[in-house]
From TrEMBL:
This is EFR3 homolog A (S. cerevisiae). It comes from the Eukaryota. InterPro entries: ARM-type_fold, EFR3_Homologs. GO terms for biological process: protein localization to plasma membrane. Residues 175-197 are annotated as: Disordered. One of its GO terms (cellular component) is plasma membrane. Transmembrane segments: none annotated.
């Protein structure tokens, strides 16, 4: 029959070589009878020349070559066939085509070579060679397709999910192979010319990433993150860090923000994972931003900080949750471990914030500083994201809020480290300075320390802090070789505007009863840095007035401060005036300060920093105001500074800190306090029986009408007011007037608060209870007035 004849002819033609297509004959010729004989070089060159001459046949050549290789490897098992397969494909991949193919696909090759990369052959050398062959095969696929715009399919997830893990698997497993075989070398070759799978996979990984275009970055990075998840490589994270270093150094710089965004998103997906996994991801992020900060980060600067601050907040919440569970008595040991692990996450986040911020240009760093400060919870700001319990009009700030403040301020210290601004007005704008100073008023010495360290980072533009470390009486300030420049006009204007605010917070910060040795050290450094960086003649006078006011506050002790705090303030004043007198190089001033210090050394060593801040230093029961030689005298210092340059007359005007909105916010009374105030006013309005029983005599009437002393006091008061308005700087006069206005505002606020619950009135209904008459309080809006009294 014709069908049998046709089949016979086809079979005959297939068996006869000359009747087969030429490309098949050329492919058949390259296969040796024995794999050990290796590749026939001349026949391979013929096949290559034919493929170049007839590129339209490449698809057929590839398909037939794959068919023969499948049969070849099946009939001749062993490494020789595999090595031969890889060699032939690499040759094919190196063929350069003039005309691209619109329909060629490499799914089969990617699958087969990826399987070879994961070989688990029992023989180590064979396994190593199979993996090398698979990696070189994938490298051939990459080189064949990655530069072809029509082969964008290679970047699709189904291929990247095979290519990338195959390379990472060998990079990760190279240590095991090297221990069994030979040490890894950067070139990819081991001893005796043997190729190392780990080094070869890394080279292929770098080549692939280097060829990745803008739109392919996400598909290239996502499989890396998935691989690290599947193999639990975030803890420990050495391999993860190594992978992303390779990625960041291999890709084009303008694509860095894609990688950073991918890691940020991955951190979000793991926000409920263990602390060590989250810490591992954050440390990887640190490596990426550290490399990206040297080049281009793109529009993700604030996004990085926003995500990190969000996870910092979450970590604090987790820590507090573990603390509360621990306090409830459940799993004490495990909860303590989780709590300490959360600290690892927080420290990693702070380190990342600081390193990233420290590598940004100054203009971007200033924006980041403002951004972080806007996240710090302070009094008077909305607290809907904080752990607060609202009682009346006061927010009782919990431990969680304090922890958040500590973490964010620590981040600010990292970001501001090394920050150099030409103008203080640009470095410390009001939106940044005001909340920072609000935190400095809080009753927590650790927070106040962090605020002072941030100020040091910003104000100290010549790195003099290391020379000023430790509060002490410096015998020779000139030997410190302090670096300084002439005060600029912009900084003079800054001190005119914000100087009183700076002095006020130093003054208030000194009298806090929980101040420690470190607090006084930082306060001394603050005064010294202000003197170096921002002090002209006018500021020097203001700083001396501030020092005298601190001394007077310690002597008067109107705040009922502990003796340690009072002696610490005295020591701070001595250390600072000693430094200031030598900085302005005024011999009479230096002599006066030295004389007081010498007397203290002999009679009152507890008023010097070297003694009072020593462990178990004995303190006196009281400070004698009348022992004048032990204290710095305003008149003596004014006499020393008399002459051109300094307006010494202003020293006679006592420094008084201005009252601001912060005081009203921190001193607002709770609802319970308002009621108690109301009751006190009502009870105080009732006459006391002892007052009614006081006998009225001639001497009592004489005292009542004798106004001689009052007139004298009034004249003295008017004279002081006139003198103050004539000699005091405008900023201080404005601050004084503002404090008066604020006090009036406070009084009016108290009066208005009384209308909430007015005192008992005659219009109330009298009730008899337990034999006592009680007036029931009636609100004003419920009182009934006669018609004649109603308009």
């Amino acid at each position: 029959p014709p069908t049998n004849l046709t089949l016979a002819l086809v079979t005959f033609c297939g068996c006869c070589g000359p009747l087969r297509p030429r490309y098949k004959r050329l492919v058949d010729n390259i296969f040796p009878e024995d794999p050990k004989d290796g590749l026939s070089k001349s026949d391979m060159e013929k096949l290559t020349f034919y493929a170049v001459s007839a590129p339209e046949k490449l698809d057929r050549i590839g398909a037939y070559l794959a068919e023969r290789l499948m049969a070849f490897t099946h009939n001749a098992p062993g490494f020789g066939s595999v090595y031969y397969l890889r060699q032939e494909f690499v040759k094919f991949a190196n063929i350069e085509e003039d005309t691209p193919s619109y329909h060629r696909r490499y799914d089969f090759f990617v699958s087969q070579f990826s399987a070879m990369c994961h070989s688990t052959h029992e023989d180590v050398d064979t396994r190593k060679r199979i993996r090398v062959a698979g990696i070189k095969g994938l490298q051939g696929v990459v080189r064949k397709t990655v530069n072809d715009e029509l082969q964008a399919i290679i970047w699709e997830p189904q291929h990247m999910d095979k290519l990338i893990p195959s390379m990472l698997f060998n990079m990760q497993d190279s240590d095991d192979l090297d221990r069994a075989g030979h040490p890894s070398t950067p070139s990819g070759s081991g001893q005796d010319g043997e190729e190392n799978p780990g080094a070869l996979a890394e080279s292929c990984f770098r080549e692939l990433l280097g060829r990745a275009a803008y739109g392919n970055m996400n598909n290239a990075v996502r499989p890396v993150l998935v691989h690290l998840d599947n193999h639990h490589l975030w803890d420990p994270n050495e391999f993860a860090v190594s992978c992303f270093r390779i990625i960041m150094y291999s890709i084009q710089a303008q694509h860095s923000h894609h990688v950073i965004q991918q890691v940020l998103n991955h951190l979000d997906t793991h926000n409920r994972n263990t602390p060590r996994v989250r810490a591992g991801i954050v440390q990887v992020l640190l490596e990426t931003v550290a490399i990206a900060a040297k080049g281009s980060v793109g529009p993700t600067v604030l996004e990085v900080f926003n995500t990190l601050l969000k996870h910092l907040r979450m970590s604090v919440d987790f820590e507090l949750g573990e603390t509360s569970r621990r306090n409830s008595g459940s799993s004490v040991s495990s909860n303590r471990g989780k709590e300490s692990e959360e600290r690892i996450v927080q420290n990693a986040i702070i380190q990342t914030i600081g390193f990233f911020g420290g590598n940004l240009p100054d203009y971007q760093r200033a924006e980041v500083m403002m951004f972080i400060m806007g996240k710090v919870p302070v009094y008077g700001t909305p607290c809907h994201t904080l752990d607060t319990v609202k009682i009346g009009s006061v927010n009782k700030w919990t431990h969680g809020t304090k922890r958040i403040q500590t973490m964010l301020l620590s981040s600010l210290i990292m970001v501001t480290s090394g920050f150099k601004s030409k103008s203080m007005a640009a470095a410390l704008p009001p939106p940044f300075l005001d909340p920072l100073f609000s935190i400095s008023l809080m009753e927590d010495n650790e927070l106040r320390q962090l605020v002072l360290e941030i100020l040091h980072n910003i104000i100290d533009r010549h790195d003099n802090r290391a020379k000023l470390r430790g509060i002490r009486i410096i015998p020779n300030v000139a030997a410190l070789k302090i670096k300084r420049e002439k005060i600029s006009k912009q900084d003079v204007a800054f001190m005119k505007k914000h100087g009183q605010q700076l002095y006020r917070h130093i003054y208030l910060g000194c009298k806090e009863d929980d101040n420690s040795h470190k607090n006084f050290e930082l306060l001394f450094t603050t005064l010294a840095v202000l003197t170096i960086e921002l002090a002209n003649e006018e500021v020097v006078i203001d700083l001396i007035r501030l020092a005298v006011a601190l001394q007077d506050m310690a002597l008067a002790n109107e705040e009922n401060m502990s003796m340690f705090i009072r002696c610490g303030i005295m020591a701070l004043v001595a250390a600072y005036l000693n430094f200031l007198s030598q900085m302005i190089a005024n011999p009479p001033f230096c002599q006066h300060v030295s004389k007081v210090i010498e007397l203290r050394n002999m009679d009152a060593p507890y008023l010097l920093p070297e003694h009072i801040f020593r462990d178990k230093c004995p303190t006196p029961e009281s400070l004698d105001k009348d022992d004048r030689p032990l204290y710095f005298q305003t008149a003596d210092m004014a006499e020393c500074l008399a002459g051109p340059g300094y307006n010494a007359e202003r020293l006679s005007i006592p420094y008084v800190p201005q009252v601001t909105d912060e005081d009203r916010l921190t001193r607002r009374k709770s609802f319970v306090d308002t009621i108690s105030l109301q009751v006190d006013i009502v009870s105080n309005s009732l006459p006391d029986k002892s007052q009614l029983a006081e006998e009225i005599t001639f001497e009592t009437l004489k005292k009542a009408i004798d106004t001689t002393g009052l007139e004298e006091q009034e004249r003295e008061k008017r004279r002081q007011v006139m003198e103050k308005f004539q000699k005091a700087p405008f900023e201080e006069i404005a601050a004084h007037c503002e404090s008066k206005a604020n006090m009036l505002h406070d009084r009016l606020a108290q009066i208005f608060e009384l209308t909430i619950r007015p005192p008992p009135s005659p219009s109330g209904v009298v009730s008899i209870s337990a034999g006592h008459a009680q007036h029931q309080s009636v609100p004003v809006y419920e009182m009934k007035f006669p018609d004649l009294c109603v308009y």
